[in-house]
C-alpha cells in the first residue's frame, strides 16, 4: 500500500516537473527564433531595439495586437519599440501608406487600433482607397490633407525604406519581431500569442545579457 502511494507521488511529481519545464523552457534557435548572418544597424544604440512588422489586414497581427499593447504598458526602459507596416503584395501598400500618413499627422496613436477594428470586426475594406479616404474623414481627420500626405514624395520614400528593410531582414511573413537588428521571431506553428510574447521577452533578455558581458 505504501509502495503504491510512493509511486503515485513520484508519478505526480514527474508530471508537475514536466509541466514546469515546458512552461519555462528556454527558447531554441531555429524553432523560436533565427539569427541573421548579417545583422543590421539599429536606430538607438542606448536601448535594445524591437520592431514589429505587421499588416492591418493580417488576422494573426490582429490577434497578437492586444498582447503587444499589454506588453508595451510594462515595456522595460532599456527597450525601444516601433511598428513598421510590412509590404508583401500591392494590396498591402494602402495600409502602409495609411500608417505613415497618420504618423505624420500625429494621429496614429488613437487610430492604429481603430484600423484593426474597422477591417476585422466592422468588415470595412480599408485596402480600397476610396473607402479608406471616406473612413478617414469620419475620424475627424482632414480628408484633403490626409490624401496629400498619403500621395506625397515623403510617404513614397518611407514605402521604399520599408521594402529595403524587409529585404535586409529577409522577412517572409507577419507578424514578426526583429530584435536588435539581429534576431527574428514570429508566431510558431501551433503556438499562441502568449508564446510569441514570451519568446520576445527571452530574446530581449538574451541580448541584454550579451550587452552586459
Number of strands: 5
User: Would you state the CATH class?
Assistant: Alpha Beta
**What is the CATH homologous superfamily assignment?**
Glutaredoxin
Label the overall shape: globular
SSE order, one letter for each helix or strand: HEEHEHHHHHEEH
Secondary structural class = alpha+beta
Rg calculated over all Cα atoms: 21 Å
Strand content: 5-15%
Could you estimate the helical fraction of the residues in percent? 40-55%
What composes the largest sheet?
5 strands, mixed
* End-to-end gap: 55 Å
Q: Report mean pLDDT, rounded to a whole number.
A: 89
Number of helices: 8
The CATH architecture category equals 3-Layer(aba) Sandwich
Q: Uncertain runs with pLDDT below 50, 5 residues or more? A: 6-24
- Cross-sheet strand order for the largest sheet: 1-5-4-2-3
Briefly note the CATH topology name: Glutaredoxin
How would you describe the overall organization of this protein?
With 213 residues, this protein is an alpha+beta fold. The chain has a single domain (29-212), classed as Glutaredoxin. It has eight helices and five strands, in the order H-E-E-H-E-H-H-H-H-H-E-E-H. The chain has helices at 2-23, 59-73, 93-104, 108-120, 129-137, 143-150, 153-169, 193-212; strands at 34-35, 48-54, 79-85, 176-179, 183-186. It has a five-stranded mixed β-sheet with strand order 1-5-4-2-3. Strand 2 (48-54), helix 2 (59-73) and strand 3 (79-85) form a beta-alpha-beta unit. Helix 3 packs across helix 6. The radius of gyration is 21 Å and the shape is globular. The termini are far apart. The model is unreliable at 6-24 (pLDDT under 50).
Amino acid at each position: 500500500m505504501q509502495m503504491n502511494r510512493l509511486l503515485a507521488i513520484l508519478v505526480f511529481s514527474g508530471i508537475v516537473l514536466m509541466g514546469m519545464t515546458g512552461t519555462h523552457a528556454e527558447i531554441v534557435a531555429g524553432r523560436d527564433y533565427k539569427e541573421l548572418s548579417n545583422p543590421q544597424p539599429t536606430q538607438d544604440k542606448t536601448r535594445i531595439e524591437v520592431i514589429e512588422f505587421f499588416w492591418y489586414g493580417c488576422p494573426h497581427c490582429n490577434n497578437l495586437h492586444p498582447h503587444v499593447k499589454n506588453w508595451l504598458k510594462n515595456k522595460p526602459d532599456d527597450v525601444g519599440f516601433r511598428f513598421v507596416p510590412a509590404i508583401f503584395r500591392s494590396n498591402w501598400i494602402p495600409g502602409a501608406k495609411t500608417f505613415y500618413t497618420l504618423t505624420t499627422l500625429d494621429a496614429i496613436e488613437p487610430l492604429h487600433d481603430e484600423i484593426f477594428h474597422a477591417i476585422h470586426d466592422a468588415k470595412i475594406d480599408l485596402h480600397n482607397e476610396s473607402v479608406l479616404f471616406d473612413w478617414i474623414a469620419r475620424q475627424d481627420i482632414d480628408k484633403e490633407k490626409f490624401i496629400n500626405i498619403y500621395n506625397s514624395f515623403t510617404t513614397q520614400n518611407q514605402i521604399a525604406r520599408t521594402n529595403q528593410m524587409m529585404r535586409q531582414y529577409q522577412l517572409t511573413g507577419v507578424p514578426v519581431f526583429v530584435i536588435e537588428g539581429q534576431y527574428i521571431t514570429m508566431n510558431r506553428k501551433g503556438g499562441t500569442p502568449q508564446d510569441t510574447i514570451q519568446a520576445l521577452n527571452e530574446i530581449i533578455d538574451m541580448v541584454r545579457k550579451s550587452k552586459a558581458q
